[in-house]
Design brief:
single chain, alpha/beta, Rossmann fold, 2 domains, three-stranded antiparallel beta sheet
Length: about 260
């Protein structure tokens, strides 16, 4: 958000972003609880909007004996995608996860075994999976950067009428070309015959759970900042990586790449 970046720079504050506090193994400890919640909600909401009265295909994700279950395609195998797959499996759906990280796919195999189809993410696999899906969950995150568009309009046009797209990546611009930001009060719209759900801050739908989870993750870092001030960023490298703006300068490399003209 350029306006936000410019205002933070001129204000003189030292700004730390939740989504860029990063542990040595690449995990994002402050984003993780919200990612878990968003991933689980994505399938919960998707199942709801697949109902005919909500504009969907009228598909029960879990199916019943004698009737095929619904097909859920998850784009991205990170925390959001893993939790989406977990809930979809629990509901009895057929699940596919696509990711570009082979090591991550191997890890997901240890979690789900043969219950989930795990595919390397390329244009062909995405096209084949999305066109046949009842529910597509966009779960792509590149810290500090805009999400890549993996599902162009031409592919949305090939989807089944009444299928549902839930793009958790909408906070980073979305990974579906036809998706735009919606709200909790008006969460969906129909485009190309497909139901689109594009609510930012999905955990806001479950504020009690989200608040408790976020407090649990955030409090240790808040205490470090309260006790040591800016020195805490030197003592804790993960917290140091979260620094985006300092001394009226944009300092995080990923954000600098997005707004190179704001870098002195």
């Amino acid at each position: 958000n350029r306006d936000l970046a410019e205002h933070l720079i001129t204000s003189g504050v030292s700004a730390i972003a939740y989504e860029t506090v990063e542990l040595p193994d690449g995990r994002l400890p402050l984003l993780m609880p919200m990612s878990v919640i968003a991933g689980r909600l994505s399938v919960q909401f998707g199942a709801h909007f697949l109902e005919r009265q909500q504009g969907g295909r009228g598909v029960l994700l879990g199916g019943i004996p004698g009737v095929h279950p619904g097909k859920v395609v998850v784009l991205g195998g990170g925390i959001v995608g893993t939790e989406a797959a977990r809930i979809a499996l629990g509901m009895g759906a057929q699940v596919e996860i696509l990711d570009i990280n082979i090591d991550r796919l191997a890890y997901l195999e240890t979690l789900f075994g043969s219950q989930v189809t795990l595919l390397y993410s390329n244009s062909q696999h995405i096209a084949e999976a999305v066109a046949a899906a009842d529910l597509v969950v966009g779960a792509v995150l590149i810290p500090g950067r805009k999400a890549p568009v993996l599902v162009p309009r031409s592919l949305v046009q090939q989807m089944r009428s009444g299928a549902v797209i839930v793009d958790v990546a909408v906070d980073q611009g979305g990974c579906v070309e036809t998706l735009r930001t919606t709200s909790h009060s008006h969460p969906t719209y129909l485009e190309e015959g497909v139901v689109h759900y594009g609510v930012p801050n999905m955990p806001g739908a479950v504020p009690w759970t989200a608040t408790q989870a976020l407090n649990n993750s955030t409090l240790p870092y808040v205490l470090k900042l309260a006790n040591r001030g800016m020195e805490a960023l030197d003592l804790d490298p993960a917290l140091g990586k979260g620094l985006n703006i300092h001394n009226q300068c944009l300092v995080h490399p990923a954000v600098q790449a997005v707004f190179p003209d704001l870098v002195p």
